[in-house]
Structure formats: structure tokens, C-alpha cells
Amino acid sequence: MTTQQQPRPYVPSKTLDTPYPLIDNDPHLKRVIRYARPSDYLAGAALGASVPGMMLLWERIAPSHVGKGGFAPIMRLAGALGLIGGFLYCTERSTMRFYGFRENKREIEMDMREMVEKVKKGEPLYGKSSLSPHMQGVASRNSRYSGVWLHVIPWFNLVNHEQVRCGVWGLSRE
Fold it and tell me: N or C, where is the chain less crowded by C-beta within 10 Å?
């Protein structure tokens, strides 16, 4: 006895009501970093430098008296936390522009140029993937709008997938 698989119904991803147009509800991490503005990098660097800076300030205000070699490991930890925090802050600011939560005119123009160039070359719009369509769907559903909760769980889209994306140009399926 054979069982016949029924086609799964297509359910588009939710589109949020945002003050600016949605570009991509699941941007790849490389695109997020590539589209980041200098102000995003500056904000990330400022946040990153503030962590060890605050440790130095606290050491001046209330010395810990840890002795020789006790403060260096704390500063290394503060530097590492600053780097991680600065990177997350920079990527979150850039991701919010993809979602339409922040002003994104520059990103819309960059996206349009990139997509037109890929169409002219005959390439897939969002890159090629070695994953099966099922795994691409799983990856897409797990990382869609993940940037909204980046401050809780750092979760990025690291997979090129051919899933439907809602954006400035409407629904598109590769």
C-alpha cells in the first residue's frame, strides 16, 4: 500500500506594519554587515569601547586592590564582552533597517541595485544553497525576524534559501 503525499499549503510569512518599507524579513548575515552604515559601525565601536572604559572608571572610583596581575584578566574579559556587544549592536541596527523599523532609503537603493545586477547575471536573488528545500524552509522559519530578539538570543541567518520573502518588491519566489 502506498501513501500519496498531499502538497503542503503555502503560508506566506507575516508582514509587520512598520513605519518604513520592509526590504527582507530574513537577511543573511553577510548582507546585514555589508549594508551597515558607518554610523552603525561607530555606534558598535562606542558601545564596545565603553565596557572596558567603564571597568577602568570603576577601578578608579572604587579600587579593587586585586594585586599584581589581577586586573589584566578582568580587562581582557571586558574587552571581549565589548567586542561581542559592539558587534551585536551594529548588526541589530542594520537589521532593523531591513525590517523597516528604521529609516532605510539607502538600503532600498542598494538592494535594488544588487537584485537587478543578479537578475542580469542570471543568478539566484538570494544566493545558492546546498541544503534540501525542506532544510532551507526550516532554516528560514527559524531565523525569520530573529533580529528583533537579537538582544535575547543572538540568532543570525547563515543560510541562503529560496523561500518566499516579503519585501519592498512584494512577494517573490525564486
Answer: N
